[in-house]
Write a structure and sequence with these properties.
201 residues; alpha/beta; Rossmann fold; 6-stranded parallel β-sheet; 10 strands; 34% helix; globular
Amino acid sequence: MDITKAMAQFEQKGYTVSYFDRAQAATTYLDTVIRQQTVGFGDSATLSDMGLFQVLRARNEVFDPQNRRNGSSFLSTAKQCLTTDVYLTSVNALSETGELVNIDGTGNRLAGALFGHEKVFFVAGTNKLVATLDQAIWRARNVAAPKNAKRLGLRTPCASRADRCYDCSSPDRICNGMLVHFKAMDDMDMEIVLVDETLGF
């Protein structure tokens, strides 16, 4: 994939773009620019891979559905994430033409990436970068969603076979909604932190 072309497209579409060769450098950068704020996390394997919860909670009040405290539920923590100063999430796919694609089951990651924060960071490895929007949608459905369903131990055809989307009607289905960012949202600072490593799904 052409990382330089993708970065130029993201900047043209209103995003700030930061690029790092290694995840550790990206983690250090985020720890530097996020200080004394409330921070919400989208349910993200990428953020977990980078250890961002442990790093950022040293200087911020951080809410993460994967690291709930005091016995709070997933939904209550996810709701708290929607009212924070800063929101961090990943994406299921990015395209060289400048689109971001996410699929979600409960909608918390989609909602957090749309409105209400001072700043949103999209943190993604270059393993998620594809050439076109059509390929990004295909990747989100047929690569990211099955792997996430398997990670979560869900009972879906894609999780058990780990190969593709079956457009199933399982109660555990996690691809209930899809969001395509064609451009950065109005009136919100949005930054893509692109890491030249394989991170998440």
